[in-house]
Structures are given as structure tokens and as C-alpha cells.
Specification:
single chain, alpha+beta, two-stranded antiparallel sheet, 5 helices, 21% strand, globular
């Protein structure tokens, strides 16, 4: 029954996405995420780690939301739907506006990280992993893990949010 439920969630998720053209995955930043050395505490955490490892290296595709091509909000949308059963808005700014704002010290793996890239409005979103790192879909490198300590992201960090 769990397999049928999982396949149903996948089918709904794919149906809600725009058609995505098949792309070649890159090998850049294929480092698997490491847990903090302890076993995942629950099924959501295990699913989150598995999805991260499966999506690393997926190419960027504006409007996409699958491993074959995704933009930042598409990746976050799909992760939240598959892991938590929560359907988020489809744009970074809309997600930001509806998220419960949290302090960085409260951020846990799976919480959201928001950035204002071009102006004061949020235009980029990723998901916190651990140790001031986050997974996101970069327009130039596809799905990668980056550090909040990198000057580019540090300067553009708008805040953290959660739907859980």
C-alpha cells in the first residue's frame, strides 16, 4: 500500500509540473550530503536526505520541477510535496510571503532559505541542510549545495522560513 501511495504522490507531482524536456545531468557538485553522523530520526529526514542525494547535479530549467530540470522554487515545491505532503506556492516570493519566518538559530534541515538576488524582493529559495549549507537550483550549475558563508549568498540572504 505504501508503494501505491508513493506512486500516486509522484504521479500527482509530475502532473502538476510543466512538461520538461529531457536534459543531461551534470557531475558538478555530486557530493552526497552527509548526515550529522547519527541515523535519521524519522522517515521525513530519511526521505529528505535521499531526495537531496538523488537531485544533486540535476540541471537548471526555468519552470521545471523534476530531476530532469528544475528551477529553485520547483525543486522546493517538489521536495515539500513528496516529503511533507505540503503544496507550496510556485514562486520564491510567494513562498516567502506565506512561510512562517524563523531565526537562523531555529533552522532545521528542510526549512527554507530565502534570497533577494536583484532587488529587495525574494527571487531565490533553497532548503537548509545543516552547518550553514543549503541545497538549491543555481541557474549556472543546476542543483548544488552551497554555503551561507559564501559572500554572494551572505550579502543576499533575506531570511529563513518554515511550513512545518
Amino acid at each position: 500500500m505504501r508503494i501505491v501511495s508513493f506512486l500516486f504522490v509522484i504521479a500527482i507531482t509530475l502532473a502538476s509540473c510543466k512538461a520538461v524536456q529531457k536534459s543531461v545531468r551534470t557531475d558538478e557538485n555530486k557530493n552526497k550530503i552527509e548526515s550529522s553522523g547519527k541515523e535519521p530520526s524519522n522517515q521525513s529526514e530519511l526521505n529528505y536526505q535521499s531526495l537531496i542525494n538523488a537531485w544533486l547535479g540535476s540541471p537548471y530549467k526555468y519552470g521545471g520541477c523534476t530531476k530532469d530540470g528544475t528551477d529553485c522554487s520547483g525543486m522546493v515545491y517538489t521536495f515539500y510535496k513528496e516529503i511533507y505532503g505540503i503544496e507550496l506556492p510556485r514562486s520564491s516570493n510567494e513562498i516567502y510571503l506565506k512561510a512562517r519566518k524563523i531565526d537562523e538559530s531555529q533552522a532545521k534541515p528542510g526549512d527554507l532559505v530565502f534570497f533577494a538576488i536583484k532587488n529587495n524582493q525574494v527571487s531565490h529559495v533553497g532548503m537548509y541542510t545543516n552547518d550553514r549549507k543549503f541545497i538549491h537550483s543555481s541557474t549556472s550549475k543546476g542543483v548544488i549545495i552551497s554555503s551561507l558563508n559564501e559572500p554572494y549568498y551572505k550579502e543576499r540572504l533575506k531570511g529563513f522560513g518554515s511550513f512545518r
